[in-house]
Amino acid sequence: MLYVPSHPARELDKDLQTAEIPKYTPEGKLDFHACRVAYINLVLESGATVKEAQALARHATPQLTMNVYGRTREERLAEAIEKVCSSGKRA
């Protein structure tokens, strides 16, 4: 049977402490919410549609998925611009 903790944030804190991974660093805080943000962004970057990411995140609206959890990464923005530039050269 699958064990699902009733307080996943507390369980994550215990796991971080056991693994000697700091919860707070100059880059930010590693908590349950940060893990959800990372998960949802990995789903989106894998090519899932907004609706698919919304369903996997179990969000009520696509706005919650994209406006609260969706993030951009500088390197992905640069890749997008490169694709636009290279497709324009072919035209």
Summarize the structure.
The chain has helices spanning 8-18, 32-45, 50-57, 62-69, 74-90; strands at residues 24-25, 28-29. It has one domain. Helix content is 64%, strand content 4%.
Q: What percentage of amino acids are in beta strands?
A: under 5%
Measured between the Cα atoms of the first and last residue, the distance is: 56 Å
Principal-axes shape call: extended
Q: Which strand order do you get reading across the main beta sheet?
A: 1-2
Contiguous low-pLDDT stretches (5 residues minimum) are: none
Q: Pairing-aware structural class of the strands and helices?
A: mainly alpha
Number of domains: 1
Number of strands: 2
Reported for the largest beta sheet, the result is:
2 strands, antiparallel
Mean pLDDT across residues: 91
What count of helical segments does DSSP give? 5
Radius of gyration: 17 Å
Percent helix among the residues?
55-70%
Order of helices and strands: HEEHHHH
What is the fold's blueprint, element by element?
Blueprint: H1 8-18, E1 24-25, E2 28-29, H2 32-45, H3 50-57, H4 62-69, H5 74-90
Helix pairs in contact: 2-3, 3-4
Describe the overall structure.
There is one protein chain. The chain has five helices and two strands. It is mainly alpha-helical and 91 residues long. It has one domain (8-90). It has a two-stranded antiparallel sheet. A hairpin with a 2-residue loop joins strand 1 (24-25) and strand 2. Helix 3 crosses helix 4. It starts with 7 loop residues before the first helix and ends with a helix. The model has no long low-confidence stretch (mean pLDDT 91).
